[in-house]
């Protein structure tokens, strides 16, 4: 996703996870692998700061905002910059009217613990839930013990990764063509899916750019292959399938795992946590969100409380469709 900053229409990403899951650590690791001159990392972003950074300070850059809430003041101008590629401001400085311009394109990455996002922000970003399950917690703890025992792995040579990114940036603006794009199909459930399909295509273009030395060139355009789509399909198919309008990926994942109408019983919070290997708190937040959206209904008279999926929602999910299978594209 960070490579997409080099495209004409970069991707933006929001990491979704409870506190302590590792959102900041992931963003820090990504920062170390990127050339310092290609990254702007901030804890707080105001609307005015976008204009005063300089006209090309964000052009084909990766803007990392540690917490989504830290960029709340700049949400509107960021959306405009992502959509139109340019911001203009006229203001009075020392009694004179001066104009400021900020140019894109820019890729934005951030993280949040909130399952409820502004619909305008969510529709423009790829929402990536981080793994907060027990198995991942055990793996992290094992890595921590190995480090303290003096058995940490070989440090990553960040300089090689940074130089690779510099090579990718040569010859901007990067142009990619996907010759099989018209053969691809996407879910078409709500208007949300209009941007979902655009994000998938942008990811294919980003992977093509990453592998450009092994791709054909059509005049000045790098030509994508079905292998580029295959990699992207494996990464994002669950995210696209779970991109239900108004629901967080966490709530949608639980919705798909719950028993359908007619199943005996229903599910408790502990049942949901066990099915998806989540913590109790994560399962509780997901169930609360589904109840707020009138997707779950309580089973009367039971304790502990149990829920079932509303039938109409289950039927809608069954007919949602999905992405084209990579095998259908051939070699």
List the helices and strands and how they pair.
Blueprint: E1 13-16, H1 23-33, E2 39-42, H2 47-52, E3 61-65, H3 75-84, E4 86-93, E5 96-103, E6 106-112, H4 119-123, E7 126-129, H5 134-148, H6 158-168, E8 176-177, H7 192-210, E9 217-218, E10 221-223, H8 226-241, H9 249-257, H10 269-276, H11 280-292, E11 296-298, E12 307-309, H12 311-318
Notes on the structure:
The protein folds into 3 domains: 2-162, Rossmann fold (3-Layer(aba) Sandwich), CATH 3.40.50; 172-244, no CATH class; 249-318, Winged helix-like DNA-binding domain superfamily/Winged helix DNA-binding domain (Arc Repressor Mutant, subunit A, Orthogonal Bundle), CATH 1.10.10. 40% of the residues lie in helices and 16% in strands. The protein contains 12 helices and 12 strands. The chain has helices at 23-33, 47-52, 75-84, 119-123, 134-148, 158-168, 192-210, 226-241, 249-257, 269-276, 280-292, 311-318; strands at residues 13-16, 39-42, 61-65, 86-93, 96-103, 106-112, 126-129, 176-177, 217-218, 221-223, 296-298, 307-309. Strands 2-3-6-1-7 form a 5-stranded parallel sheet, covered by helices on one side. A 3-stranded mixed sheet has the order 8-10-9, with helices on one face. A two-stranded antiparallel sheet has the order 4-5. A hairpin with a 2-residue loop joins strand 4 (86-93) and strand 5 (96-103). Helix 7 (192-210) packs antiparallel against helix 8, helix 9 (249-257) crosses helix 11 and helix 10 (269-276) crosses helix 11 (280-292). The longest helix has 19 residues, at 192-210. The radius of gyration is 22 Å and the shape is globular. The mean pLDDT is 81.
